[in-house]
Design brief:
Elements: E1 3-7, H1 9-22, E2 28-32, H2 34-38, H3 42-51, E3 56-59, H4 62-71, E4 77-82, H5 88-94, E5 97-100, H6 103-112, E6 117-123, H7 137-144, E7 150-157, H8 167-185, E8 192-196, H9 198-203, E9 211-214, H10 226-229, E10 243-248, E11 251-255, E12 260-261, E13 267-268, E14 273-278, E15 304-307, E16 310-313, E17 323-326, E18 338-341, E19 354-356
Parallel strand pairs: 1-19, 2-3, 2-9, 3-4, 4-5, 5-6, 6-7, 7-8, 8-9
Antiparallel strand pairs: 1-10, 10-18, 11-14, 12-13, 14-17, 15-16, 15-18
Helix pairs in contact: 1-3, 5-6
């Protein structure tokens, strides 16, 4: 196998347990598995998360929900973005929990449902993607409550929170959302609320409300560095990264000083070098940026792979399906040697095999 992704389910399970431990009693844990579980594989991540503390699952669309329902017939699956009216029959049939901000959709859901079906009413708290304006929420809910089978169960909000930059604004909006939820419960008793994602759970854990939607932390990504600025430990200690992308070296060659490499001879060897080729490039999710600018005013940033614990820096920019690495001084680099590469997981080519440990 020339390239593959290894996913350590034990690490992911430990992350899920750490998140569950961080939640107050009674607060539910939604494992966010949109974008195919952030590239890890939604079904495998979901099974692991549910076995280790997650109460329900969150995806973005009805299409994602349908795929996950096929793998997990009994799981509670929430859709985090509004759906189209024509998707209402599918949502009802599969028992998904949709997000709504439109009476047109809710009427379609009500017509499609054969029994009461719960939904989430989303409130726009400034992100501007979707949601009912807070000032319109009571009027909207009163109209929605006239429907027979579509029933409001959850109230959600997605904040434009940037860690450490707008904490005061986030506090104010979360407090306003909590007050709105309390008012709406007078119309719909039992209505529960959630607004905390990974960043809010980390920096503002007192706003867990009735549920936290956790994606980044589940995958070992700390979305905030507020704790570093306070010289404290991470908000959930011990999280690990379950993902690693590997590609094997397919060629190693010696390069003379002054020899040019890559398209348009964009890289010139500054010294005698050993250069290795791996069959992975930007079609797999690696960067398209050059490692060096021809003219620069700062030190710049260089991408690298790791071979036996040593950095092998990119030489030139990644191609569509290959990348050159400087393996000078890494004697273990030879044809067949695996190289650990950094790649944005949600951008990783889904055709790359995922191997679960």
């Amino acid at each position: 196998m020339l390239k593959w992704v290894e996913i350590d389910l034990k690490v992911l399970a430990g992350n899920a347990r750490a998140v569950k431990k961080a939640l107050r009693p009674g607060a539910r844990f939604m494992a966010v598995v949109k974008a195919d579980g952030y590239g890890h594989g939604a079904a495998e991540v979901s099974r692991t998360a549910l076995k280790n503390g997650a109460d329900c699952l969150g995806v973005l669309t009805a299409e994602e929900g349908a795929a996950l329902r096929a793998a997990l017939p009994k799981a509670e699956i929430h859709l985090l973005a509004p759906s189209l009216p024509e998707e209402a029959p599918l949502i009802s049939r599969l028992g998904l929990v949709p997000t709504a901000d439109s009476l047109v959709f809710l009427k379609a859901l009500d017509r499609a449902a054969k029994r009461p079906v719960p939904y989430t009413l989303d409130i726009d708290q400034g992100l501007g993607r979707w949601g009912v304006k807070p000032g319109d929420a009571e009027t909207f809910l009163r109209a929605a409550l006239r429907l027979e089978r579509a029933r409001p169960a959850w109230l959600s909000a997605h904040l434009a929170y940037r860690p450490a930059q707008n904490m005061t604004e986030a506090e104010e909006k979360l407090a306003a959302f909590a007050r709105l939820a309390q008012r709406l419960r007078a119309l719909a008793p039992g209505l529960k609320a959630h607004a905390a994602n990974s960043a809010i759970l980390s920096d503002l854990p007192h706003w867990q409300l009735d549920m936290a939607r956790v994606g980044n932390l589940l995958y070992g990504i700390y979305p905030t560095d507020v704790y570093r600025k306070k010289k404290q430990g991470p908000p959930l200690p011990g999280l690990g990264r379950p993902w690693q992308f590997y590609a094997r070296i397919i060629s190693v060659r010696d390069v003379r000083k002054g020899e040019s490499l890559g398209y348009s001879a964009e890289f010139t060897a500054p010294r005698p070098m050993r250069v290795a080729t791996v069959p992975a490039g930007y079609s797999d999710g690696l960067t398209m940026e050059p490692t060096e600018s021809q003219i620069r005013i700062a030190a710049g940033f260089r991408y690298w792979g790791v071979i036996n614990g040593k950095k092998a820096f990119f030489t030139g920019r990644a191609g569509i399906a290959h990348t050159l690495l400087d393996v000078t001084g890494i004697p273990g680099a030879k044809v067949g040697t695996p190289v650990a590469l950094h790649v944005r997981r949600t951008a990783a080519n889904p055709r790359i095999p995922r191997l679960y440990k």
